[in-house]
């Protein structure tokens, strides 16, 4: 990870996904003593037209502090120690994406972490996409955390059935010949690739520490 990563802002809501984003941010910061994690919970204003009431942030701040304490204890239990400079709780009222981006700008943050359900189609149109908006308006890199949900059809190899003529040729030649006359005409010639050994420094992946 880049040594310049000093301040991480993570958007945390009252869902399992918010906790997952927080855990990811703490994991990124773990072992990096100068790094600060700033967790923000954003309350969207719901003004009562009769009373004009705006939700208080006090209870939300207390709830966020409890969430942070529990997350820190889980990290310590798993690692033995959590070497970060600070974990700070923030609560704001407003549009979630803008509030997250504004906090990142105020802190001069190096990274923003947000969660998304990865919904598509109609559900996404109804719920909107805070993560997408954060990516658009933030002035620093954004990591989007989402549940792992690869489509089953993408994980299954698509294997075409063997041509009956090819199968016959393989049986008759005991595997010495693989293709029938028709498919033999369309087989591409093999490509030969040449590789020259490079120095270790020139092929090290980003973030590699030897």
How would you describe this structure to a colleague?
The chain has about 210 residues and is α/β, with parallel strands linked by helices. The protein has two domains: about 5-145, 3-Layer(aba) Sandwich (Rossmann fold); about 160-195, no CATH class. About 40% of the residues lie in helices and about 15% in strands. The chain has nine helices and five strands; from the N terminus they run βαβαβαβααβαααα. The chain has helices spanning about 15-30, 60-80, 95-105, 120-125, 130-135, 150-155, 165-170, 180-185, 200-205, and strands at about 5-10, 30-45, 85-95, 110-115, 140-145. Strands 3-2-1-4-5 form a five-stranded parallel sheet, sandwiched between helices. α2 links the parallel β2 (about 30-45) and β3 (about 85-95). The longest helix is centred in the N-terminal third of the chain and has 22 residues, at about 60-80. The two termini are about 15 Å apart.
């Amino acid at each position: 990870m880049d040594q310049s990563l000093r301040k991480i802002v993570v958007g945390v809501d009252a869902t399992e996904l918010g906790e997952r984003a927080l855990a990811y941010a703490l994991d990124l910061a773990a072992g990096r003593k100068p790094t600060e994690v700033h967790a923000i919970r954003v309350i969207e204003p719901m003004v009562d037209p009769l009373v004009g009431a705006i939700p208080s942030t006090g209870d939300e701040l207390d709830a966020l502090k409890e969430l942070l304490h529990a997350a820190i204890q889980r990290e310590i239990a798993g690692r033995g120690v959590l070497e970060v400079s600070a974990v700070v709780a923030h609560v704001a009222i407003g549009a979630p994406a803008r509030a997250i981006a504004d906090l990142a700008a105020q802190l001069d943050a190096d990274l923003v972490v947000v969660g998304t359900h990865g919904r598509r189609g109609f559900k996404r149109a109804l719920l909107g996409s805070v993560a997408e908006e954060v990516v658009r308006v933030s002035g620093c890199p954004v990591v989007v955390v989402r549940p792992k949900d690869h489509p089953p059809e993408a994980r299954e190899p698509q294997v075409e059935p063997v041509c009956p003529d090819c199968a016959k040729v393989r049986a008759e030649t005991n595997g010495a010949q693989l293709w029938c006359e028709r498919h033999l005409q369309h087989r591409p010639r093999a490509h030969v690739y040449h590789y020259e050994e490079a120095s270790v420094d020139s092929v090290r992946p980003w973030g590699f520490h030897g």
